[in-house]
Amino acid sequence: MVQVLLVLGLLLMLYNTYTGFRMKSKAPGGIIGERLSQLNIFITLFAIGYMVVGVLTWSRPLDSLLLIMAFILLFGAIFVLLVLRLVQAVLSALEG
């Protein structure tokens, strides 16, 4: 179960990384472009962190702390997805 949650979180973070870099190419310069660059750096670091956690915990036996950590990582990836959707909505409103 923990491995499934970690893989789901990693896949979602990889999708978030792709979405963030795709959005950066569509964003104007200035403060929005600068903040998107910073956001993409952190998203990439989090995706790398998900991979490292997955590798380090893959063969460990199931315990409650590992399960809680896997849920926190999954919900963190969902939060990043929601933030990216908010940024997309703001960019669409600025273009429109």
Could you explain how this protein is built, in words?
The chain is mostly helical and 96 residues long. The chain has one domain (9-95). The protein has three helices and no strands. Helix 1 (2-26) packs antiparallel against helix 2 (30-57) and helix 1 runs parallel beside helix 3 (64-95). The protein is elongated. The model has no long low-confidence stretch (mean pLDDT 90).
Question: What is this structure's SSE topology?
Answer:
Blueprint: H1 2-26, H2 30-57, H3 64-95
Short description:
The protein has 96 residues and is mostly helical.
The proportion of residues in beta strands is under 5%
The gyration radius over C-alpha positions equals 15 Å
**Average predicted local confidence, pLDDT:** 90
User: Which secondary-structure class do the elements indicate?
Assistant: mainly alpha
| Count of discrete structural domains | 1
Query: Percent helix among the residues?
Result: over 70%
**What is the number of helical segments per DSSP (H or I, 4+ residues)?**
3
Find the count of extended strands (DSSP E, 2+ residues): 0
User: What global shape is seen?
Assistant: elongated
Instruction: Give the H and E element order.
Output: HHH
Ends: how far apart? 44 Å
